[in-house]
Q: What sequence folds into this?
């Protein structure tokens, strides 16, 4: 569904993303991980149309979408959430979600009504008429999700949706995301919370210093030496292996 | 092409005016750079300072240039007080409201002046007002020459203040990274007010340099505000060098524009530049991302 | 909190029979000016309150409508009623122009405020310089009182017109509160990036808000010309109109239907009081506006509309303290 090929982006002297390529297959959950500063947010921004790429191609459902503005991408079914949640302040949960519904609903009243269904899908039905200011961070993350879902996306880009959640909230969010995938939405997520990535992703790409350094199934990449070094530093893979061997020898 | 004898004085005058404009703009860009406030009241406060110099001269006989040590601290105090009390309090720190507060201030100050001092144009006539300095190829009026030199000196002093003193370091730290500055113990509210005060003190200096060749009138604020903003936007919000270069560019534009196109159209010229910069290059020639 | 349509309609309807009850010219003038402020305030509120784009140069749209009305009837003999319609169109067109330039280049917040201010000033300088606007001297509309000529012998006539215009503006505000477009506009105000990500064409939404706002301002300008029969660059494009336009909704409550109306009554009332107290000294009126702006921002940023909830909150807080 999504094919990113050779995308490069430079900010002045800094190369944020270099020749990055990834693929999000239809109906799958694909994850993009990497240490801080790796360029995940930039790549996300490029795919979602917020940042122009210097080079490369982004194809969504077979069509090149580089240069297409975000609001038109949303219309085509590509929607993103934001890492730092951005609710519409001063409005209720229903009104927030309804903005998303409005993309597909002709009338405002229909949008407001549908908002309730969407809220139910993410488990926020009881909060539907509360002001967003009253929501906890977990609530706001759900709202962010609900708003995006309301637009009936084909591809949903989740930007660190687990950030700021405690373990219990994460445990609640994981099945929710799986349910979204099961309903037919393709997902691309960037994440720092490894347990979420491991349990959700069918395919993982690892970004470091703007380059994709590994891709594969979660179990594969977690033992990949390059990935370990990206997170833990040069030589870490060796040391870990050495220690594991040593530990096994002692046992 | 116009005769050299007409062009050169126009250029010299433009540079002289430009230096004072730069001083005014420096205050504005400092305020923006540190507090991220677009100070709509900048022109009005300059107008107030001009009246200050005027009354010091007419009531106490103090020469405008000698009034510098009086007016600069006075304007600093006024700026400090305004930021600490009115601006910070009324806006509750919200950026969109700060804009409105400074707008409100400018309206209050402009109309208070109109009420207190009427719409008469006030000028002073010190003995040196019509003397000229001979450069060989051209003459330039003494007040203009002094204002040019004075503006450059004060700009230099300001640069030293910002880049070579502890206070300046605190200000620059705060401008770059508010939270970090707070964490290292900088009194944010105080330094904000000090920065604002310095910005307004620049107006005090500019007024002293300006009055001998200019005038005091309640409407002066409005004219200067656009010029100051144009310079700041041209040079880049928050850029010291930008304000300086911008000041000279606008001073020359006004002088040469007035020479070739007449006054009214000259004014539109400045506005046109202003709008064009805002649209096409809002970061200005030197500035960072807005 | 949304304003129920019934309430808004009731307010407007209640005002309708005023000329039948009140015969004093003074009070009718007060009512007319209040509604005129209300119209201007509703216009600004569409863009600045609901849309969050705070313009400091609404005079650009107002003045264009005013001058269009004057020039078209003086130079081309166009019927003033038609001029009213055209004034709205011209105001909307200027709104579209300023909006297209500003939003195309991504101007927001302070930069947007500055650019609108600059445009208004450019218009003022141009009007001050060109002959067909009468330059600095201004334009005088000859007195020819007849309903067909959009001049009325009795103030009641003007009252009816301004009430109708303000009612339209208020209805538009109510529509914004309940329509898709309005929801998009508010989303844009709160968070442009999020709105974009959800499929809202942010620039187009803002542009339409400017068109509507400019059009209504044009109507206000046209009314002014017909009511006062005199216009000059300072009146048309000066800072006073721009400040009035933003002060009215600010006092009453940004982004509400009735806010501009409440703000209009308050500002007009203060105008009268200050006129009596100060004897109409030059500059005092505007000074009051400036001071009021600061005071409202300091103590009542949600406007009068927010006064009720604010008092309630204060009382609740007090109750807990005593418990």
A:
């Amino acid at each position: 569904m999504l094919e990113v090929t050779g995308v490069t982006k430079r900010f002045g002297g800094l190369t944020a993303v270099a020749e990055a390529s990834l693929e999000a297959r239809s109906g799958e959950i694909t994850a993009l991980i990497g240490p801080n500063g790796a360029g995940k947010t930039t790549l996300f921004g490029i795919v979602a149309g917020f940042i122009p790429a210097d080079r490369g191609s982004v194809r969504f459902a077979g069509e090149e979408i580089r240069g297409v503005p975000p609001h038109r991408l949303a219309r085509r079914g590509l929607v993103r959430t934001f890492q730092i949640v951005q609710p519409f302040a001063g409005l209720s949960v229903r009104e927030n979600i309804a903005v998303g519904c409005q993309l597909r609903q002709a009338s405002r009243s229909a949008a407001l009504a549908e908002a309730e269904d969407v809220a139910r899908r993410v488990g926020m039905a009881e909060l539907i008429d509360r002001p967003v200011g009253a929501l906890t961070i977990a609530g706001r993350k759900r709202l962010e999700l609900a708003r995006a879902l309301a637009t009936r996306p084909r591809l949903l880009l989740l930007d660190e949706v687990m950030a700021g959640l405690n373990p219990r909230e994460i445990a609640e969010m994981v099945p929710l995301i799986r349910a979204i995938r099961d309903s037919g939405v393709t997902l691309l997520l960037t994440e720092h919370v490894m347990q979420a990535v491991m349990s959700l992703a069918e395919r993982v790409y690892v970004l470091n210093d703007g380059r994709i350094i590994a891709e594969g199934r979660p179990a594969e990449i977690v033992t990949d030496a390059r990935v370990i070094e990206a997170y833990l530093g040069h030589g870490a893979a060796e040391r870990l292996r050495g220690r594991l061997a040593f530990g096994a020898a002692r046992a | 092409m116009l005769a050299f004898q007409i062009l050169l004085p126009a250029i010299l005058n433009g540079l002289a005016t430009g230096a004072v404009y730069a001083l005014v703009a420096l205050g504005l860009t400092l305020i923006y750079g540190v507090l991220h406030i677009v100070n709509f009241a900048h022109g009005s406060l300059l107008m107030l300072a001009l009246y200050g110099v005027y009354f010091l001269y007419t009531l106490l006989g103090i020469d405008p240039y000698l009034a510098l040590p009086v007016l600069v601290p006075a304007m600093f105090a006024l700026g400090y007080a305004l930021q600490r009390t009115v601006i910070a309090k009324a806006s509750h720190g919200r950026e969109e409201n700060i804009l409105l507060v400074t707008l409100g201030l400018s309206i209050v100050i402009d109309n208070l002046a109109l009420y207190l001092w009427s719409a008469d144009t006030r000028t002073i006539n010190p003995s040196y007002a019509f003397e000229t300095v001979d450069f060989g190829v051209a003459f330039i009026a003494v007040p203009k020459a002094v204002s040019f030199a004075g503006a450059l000196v004060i700009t230099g002093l300001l640069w030293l203040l910002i880049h070579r003193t502890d206070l300046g370091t605190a200000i620059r730290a705060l401008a770059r990274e508010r939270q970090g500055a707070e964490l290292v113990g900088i009194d944010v509210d105080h330094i904000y007010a000090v920065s604002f005060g310095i910005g307004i003190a620049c107006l005090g200096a500019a007024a002293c340099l300006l009055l001998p060749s200019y005038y005091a009138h309640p409407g002066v604020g409005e004219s200067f505000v656009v010029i100051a903003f144009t310079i700041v936007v041209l040079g880049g919000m928050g850029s010291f060098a930008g304000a300086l270069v911008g000041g000279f560019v606008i001073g020359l534009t006004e002088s040469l524009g007035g020479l070739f196109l007449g006054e009214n159209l000259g004014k539109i010229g400045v506005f046109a530049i202003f709008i064009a910069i805002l649209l096409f290059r809002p970061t200005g020639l030197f500035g960072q991302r807005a | 909190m949304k304003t129920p349509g019934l309430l808004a309609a009731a307010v407007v309807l209640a005002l309708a029979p005023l000329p039948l009850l009140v015969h004093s010219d003074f009070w009718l003038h007060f009512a007319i000016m209040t509604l005129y402020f209300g119209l201007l305030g509703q216009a600004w509120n569409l863009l600045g309150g609901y849309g969050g784009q705070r313009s400091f140069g609404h005079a650009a749209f107002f003045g264009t409508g005013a001058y269009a009305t004057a020039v078209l009837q003086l130079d081309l003999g166009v019927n003033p009623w038609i001029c009213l319609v055209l004034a709205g169109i011209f105001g909307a067109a200027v709104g579209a122009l300023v909006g297209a330039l500003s939003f195309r280049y991504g101007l927001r917040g302070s930069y947007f405020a500055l650019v609108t201010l600059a445009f208004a000033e450019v218009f003022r300088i141009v009007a001050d310089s060109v002959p067909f606007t009468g330059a600095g001297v201004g334009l005088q509309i000859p007195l020819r009182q007849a309903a067909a000529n959009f001049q009325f012998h009795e103030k009641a006539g003007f009252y009816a017109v301004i009430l109708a215009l303000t009612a339209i503006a208020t209805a538009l505000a109510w529509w914004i509160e309940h329509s898709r477009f309005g929801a998009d506009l508010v989303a844009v105000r709160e968070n442009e990036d999020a709105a974009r990500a959800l499929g809202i064409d942010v620039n187009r939404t803002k542009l339409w808000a400017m068109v509507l706002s400019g059009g209504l301002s044009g109507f206000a300008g046209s009314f002014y010309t017909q009511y006062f029969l005199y216009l000059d660059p300072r009146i048309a494009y000066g800072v006073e109109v721009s400040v009035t336009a933003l002060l009215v909704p600010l006092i009453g409550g940004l982004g509400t239907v009735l806010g501009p109306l409440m703000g209009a009554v308050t500002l007009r009332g203060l105008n009268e009081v200050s006129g009596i107290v100060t004897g109409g000294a030059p500059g005092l009126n505007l000074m009051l506006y400036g001071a009021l702006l600061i005071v409202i921002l300091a103590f009542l940023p949600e406007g009068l509309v927010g006064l009720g909830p604010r008092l309630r909150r204060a009382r609740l807080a007090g109750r807990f303290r005593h418990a």
Notes: The two ends of chain C are 30 Å apart (CA to CA).
